Amino acid sequence: MGEKKLSLRRQLQQKFKPYDEIDKTITKQLALCASPSSVYGEWRSYMISLEISCHGLSWLSLCCIMLWFSQNQTFQQLIVNLFFALILDIVLVAVIKATVRRGRPSGNRNDMKFTFSIDNYAFPSGHASRSVCLAVIFYVQRIGGILGSYFSIAWAVAICISRILLGRHHVGDVLAGILLGLFEAWFVLFIWFSVDTTQYILRSFSMFQKYFGDDMDVV
Length: 219
Known about the structure:
The chain has one domain (35-106, 121-202). With 219 residues, it is mainly α. It has helices spanning 2-15, 17-30, 44-53, 56-69, 73-100, 126-140, 145-165, 171-190, 195-203, 206-212.
């Protein structure tokens, strides 16, 4: 069974090899901040700041902190749904990366923070999928009003572009990440958990039950 999977993977690699070479060539030309000595190497610190702003651990930690301190059920509903979106993104990206196993661009510098072994693979871009998923949710739910909605879109665009400029991903990785993020956002919005459902989820965890108690009111 393992040999058949390996054979199929090799066949697919051979079939898409011409496209892969084109993708690598274009990516190499666009990796303008891949190192301090690159054409726009002075922008690298800004690109890395964008990278950190979309890190999965950063967003998961932020969601947990906001859930812990918030007693507003409507706000908790939003955070639980965002948390679910983040977990969905992490799982799907990890599964696809482990299946495809496409390496990162040759110009990539191995200086990413808080990474795991699966992050050695590039397809699809988890930062692209995560930023697009969150941006669409923020836009549709009008989180932060009109200004916040459009800012989230601009942030996602900047994240996607930065992945290529930093040489972290091939163009194809980012495009795949964008498509994956759109699917994730659609799925999360389709099953959007209600206030009652999110309260049930929170009470399923003893630490939240102990903290919130049984008499929480919508603020």
